[in-house]
From TrEMBL:
<dbReference type="InterPro" id="IPR055377">
    <property type="entry name" value="GH3_M"/>
</dbReference>
<dbReference type="InterPro" id="IPR055378">
    <property type="entry name" value="GH3_C"/>
</dbReference>
<dbReference type="GO" id="GO:0016881">
    <property type="term" value="F:acid-amino acid ligase activity"/>
</dbReference>
<dbReference type="InterPro" id="IPR004993">
    <property type="entry name" value="GH3"/>
</dbReference>
<feature type="domain" description="GH3 C-terminal">
    <location>
        <begin position="151"/>
        <end position="238"/>
    </location>
</feature>
<dbReference type="GO" id="GO:0005737">
    <property type="term" value="C:cytoplasm"/>
</dbReference>
<protein>
    <submittedName>
        <fullName>Indole-3-acetic acid-amido synthetase GH3.17</fullName>
    </submittedName>
</protein>
<dbReference type="Pfam" id="PF23572">
    <property type="entry name" value="GH3_C"/>
</dbReference>
<feature type="domain" description="GH3 middle">
    <location>
        <begin position="40"/>
        <end position="93"/>
    </location>
</feature>
<dbReference type="Pfam" id="PF23571">
    <property type="entry name" value="GH3_M"/>
</dbReference>
């Protein structure tokens, strides 16, 4: 009986100590917010009470247990305030940014550009899935698979899985070349004026590939088979990060 009482007392003491440690960690944690959506090499750092309405920021955490200016890579937008506490909206992760010459095109810009480009066919097709890559990845694929065919041009590579509405076929006037032109125009309109000449002069026309139905299911299966992620954790990649992922979609591109 005495032994059981001692064990229970020790368990209570351990729980109290753990709670005290957690309280200390919470009390000593501070958070700063760093502006990331700028072209400055050393963006300005602000505390949470210094953020401005409508501005985009990257969350940076510092706390006494070892994290110092740790970046989660999440970019948020300050959409409002509740008293003095900012309301924020998640925008994207920095890892999904596209950057060929430092332009840093975000996924919200890509999504809106795709929506704008497909608007005229909105009654005929819907976009089931998309992924985009930088031309570096395509060049690496061509260099490894088709020697001598790599490209030195800089451009975005789009893979679109389109689903016809009420028909088995895509509209005859919907083609990758026309779509690429409209996508690029919309992307360009989202960039600051001083960056537009550099983009126009250095970045070539995007390449758009329509892929077969079910192609992104194959991409999902490939990622799950080659990672530790479970189906519950899986999220379709908006930006392709490896040559192997690119190859899965290229091999399923429509002629």
């Amino acid at each position: 009986m005495m032994m059981m009482v001692m064990v229970m007392v020790m368990m209570v003491m351990v729980m109290v100590m753990m709670m005290m440690v957690m309280m200390v960690m919470v009390m000593t944690m501070t958070m700063t917010v760093t502006v990331t959506v700028t072209n400055k090499p050393n963006p300005e750092t602000r505390f949470i009470d210094e953020v401005e309405l409508g501005k985009n920021y990257e969350l940076i955490f510092t706390q006494s247990q070892g994290l110092y200016r740790y970046s989660f890579g999440d970019v948020i937008n300050v959409s409002g305030f509740y008293h003095n506490c900012p309301r924020v909206k998640f925008l994207y992760r920095k890892a999904t940014l596209l950057s060929l010459i430092g332009e840093k095109t975000s996924q919200p810009v890509i999504e809106e550009s795709l929506e704008n480009a497909l608007y005229r066919w909105r009654e005929a097709v819907e976009l089931s899935h998309y992924s985009v890559a930088e031309s570096f990845l395509l060049s690496e694929y061509l260099r490894s698979k088709r020697k001598g065919m790599e490209t030195q041009e800089l451009f975005y590579v789009f893979f679109l899985e389109l689903k016809p509405k009420g028909s088995r076929d895509l509209p005859g006037d919907l083609n990758p070349q026309t779509l690429a032109k409209d996508i690029d125009k919309s992307v360009l309109d989202h960039h600051d004026e001083y960056f537009r000449p550099a983009i126009e002069n250095q970045i070539s026309r995007s390449k758009v590939f329509f892929v077969k139905p079910g192609s992104f299911s194959k991409l999902r299966d490939f990622v799950l088979a080659n990672s530790t992620a479970s189906r519950m954790q899986f999220k379709m990649p908006l930006k392709l990060r490896t040559v192997e992922m690119l190859e899965v979609l290229l091999l399923n591109a429509l002629e």
